[in-house]
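hiii so um. not sure if this is the right channel but i have a protein structure encoded as tokens and i wanna go backwards to a sequence. like what aa goes where. can anyone help
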């Protein structure tokens, strides 16, 4: 089991969700987050150097069995990348894949892959 966390642009949420549903991934958790990556540039405002605020993003969390990891990642990559370039643009987001030690469905007590 793996936990896939994707940080994407806010305007890409509907596209990513639709792509995941088409790929057979229907159980996701979505939250609003703020942050910044490499693209921070200091600006000068009235003679004072300031760092712009945090950028609003969307965090998607998806717990999947091993068989669905590549399907999930491909669905996110294909739908979250900006269409401006084949390589996307800075700020398109990131995908993190971590091992998921255990999953337990509260309602039934099922554990492991069956609970996902």
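sure thing!! here u go:
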């Amino acid at each position: 089991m793996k936990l896939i966390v994707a940080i994407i642009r806010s305007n890409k949420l509907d596209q990513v969700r639709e792509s995941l549903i088409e790929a057979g991934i229907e159980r996701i958790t979505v939250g609003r987050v703020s942050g910044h990556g490499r693209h921070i540039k200091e600006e000068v405002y009235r003679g004072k150097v300031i760092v712009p605020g945090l950028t609003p993003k969307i965090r998607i969390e998806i717990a999947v069995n091993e068989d669905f990891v590549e399907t999930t990642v491909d669905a996110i990559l294909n739908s979250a990348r900006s269409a401006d370039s084949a390589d996307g643009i800075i700020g398109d987001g990131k995908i993190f894949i971590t091992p998921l030690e255990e999953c337990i469905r509260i309602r039934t007590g099922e554990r492991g892959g069956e609970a996902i």
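oh and Helices lie at 13-22, 69-80.
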